[in-house]
Design goal:
Largest sheet of chain B: 3 strands, mixed
Number of strands of chain B: 7
Strand content of chain A: under 5%
Strand content of chain B: 5-15%
Order of helices and strands of chain B: HHHHHHEEHHHHEEEEHHE
Low-confidence stretches of chain A: 1-14, 44-49
Shape of chain A: elongated
Order of helices and strands of chain A: HHHHHH
Structural class of chain B: mainly alpha
Oligomer: heterodimer
Low-confidence stretches of chain B: 7-24
Largest sheet of chain A: none
Distance between the termini of chain A: 58 Å
Distance between the termini of chain B: 33 Å
Chain lengths: 180, 259
Amino acid sequence: MLTLYTIESLKPAFIFKPLNHAIKIMQAHKIPILFLLTWLPFSGMTSAQDDLPDDYCRWTVVDYAIAEPLCGLAGDAQRGSEIVTDGYRGNCLACHQLPIPGIEAYGTIGPPLTGIAARLSVPMIRLRVVDTRHINPMSIMPGFYRDPRLINRPGEEYRGRTFLSAQQVEDVIAYMATLK
Amino acid sequence: MIRFYKTTLLFCGLLLVIPATVVQAGEAKSGYEYIKPESRAMQDDDFENPGMLAVEKGQVLFNQKQNGTDKACAECHGEDGANLNRENIARYPVYSEEAADIVTLQKRISRCRDNTGSSKSLPTDHPDLVNLETFVRNRAVGEAVNVQTDGAITELLQAGEQLYNTRYGLIDMACYHCHDLYPGQMIRGQKISQGQGNGFPAYRLGTGEITNLHQRIQQCLTLMRAEPFAADSDEINLLGLYIMSRSNGLRIETPAVRY
């Protein structure tokens, strides 16, 4: 049988009803309610996944910008220029054109980034790299330092982590600040 | 039952609720129109098309007695599948009210194979089944895809569309993003297609393998650094159904050549 999920499945009732049901069954069979605690280790499995990683630095958006560098780190433009072309790490070229000599294959999905620092301030660039959906919720662009708890169905090796580390994000920003 | 992680579901902000009017992507175009001219030439020439190998392997299996029985598909359907109904092939995946299940072409073949009394049914997407699927789908080459879109299937299509519009994985994109918003744009060196199903099973230049639609969806999810939906899960069946319904009217190209 197929069961379709609807917005209904997001309501608290959907979570508490099964719990109530379980308690009723346990009462009917005279099973001590304390046995529910046997679920605790399992619940830990999910909550561990939902917790923010210890090294995740929180950031605040003010006026569509993030003023403070992530974790207070300083970026390195040279390292940043390597990350933006790296197909696994930044892969900015998958969607954007960048003024890097010798690179022919680039994407045309996002805007070209040549001269980006002349158009946007560093704090504005930071928000766009960290999580651009604070500006456009429909954006195709991944949040490179998006809250990992907001990622739907991450692959096993990608659970509880961000796309780039805080240091890598700052490196990319330092590189982009040179594109005037 | 749909196995769904409620913890993940709670982040309902991930669900893109897109009004049907926005989805209106215009005319359906086959992936053929987005691939490079040399890949088109490869697809058009049966001797050059590496996917024809799967068709041939499928035909051999079609003519073999299925394990444990003395029956081959060919005994009813003809040596070259001539007794198969092209129009019916173009209707897959279908919804079977009897089984309350989405039946893909591969599942139909697999069930037919099992019903001959075969002692051992093959797991979903077993290479033999993919080859048989490719052979059978190839019998209907040129036929327009014709997935049912009314009646009992409507609800399933809506659920499939919802999955299509949901973001997955660390790269955090929905199928909708690339294949509805940006077809024709470049992603590095490749042109983004509309993600149509009419060429599948297709030969993938990227992997060098014959790949059916469900396997392609799984590979795409892995690329999104997401946990792919399991073979024959409700999610993959719903997504496959919705994606094939978007291809209604496009000619079957199996085995297409695709990146």
